[in-house]
Amino acid sequence: xxxxxxxxxxxxxxxxxxxxxxxxxxxxxxxxxxxxxxxxxxxxxxxxxxxxxxxxxxxxxxxxxxxxxxxxxxxxxxxxxxxxxxxxxxxxxxxxxxxxxxxxxxxxxxxxxxxxxxxxxxxxxxxxxxxxxxxxxxxxxxxxxxxxxxxxxxxxxxxxxxxxxx
Length: 166
Fold this sequence. Notes:
The protein is an all-alpha fold. It is 68% helix and 0% strand. The chain is elongated and about 60 Å long.
């Protein structure tokens, strides 16, 4: 499981790095040589979509979404687990159809290509679809772990009380 989580994080990170390098490279070329990387804008959009889907996958499993824990903070351990399970199931309820629809988009891409280099868009969409699928699968795994009572704290690490630790 740790390998899958690590691979998911690394895929998201690699595509974020690719966006940064593509954007920075285009800025340097444009400002110094008055040149532009072909398809840099379309490419950066495609890379961002891939990074987002893979990032959603890891955030879903780790329960690391942006959240307000007004209710969660006042619950006991059992209540927190049930609330986390409910939230994970709601998230899964959105991710599973999203993954399906991204695959539908992949199958309907046909011969669409980028404007300058004519790169086939199906490969970008497919990588995003795999990320969306991994997000749904990791959401399901998190729900199973929460239901069995074996999930991690879901990003809700207990805060040490004043004077009781670092």
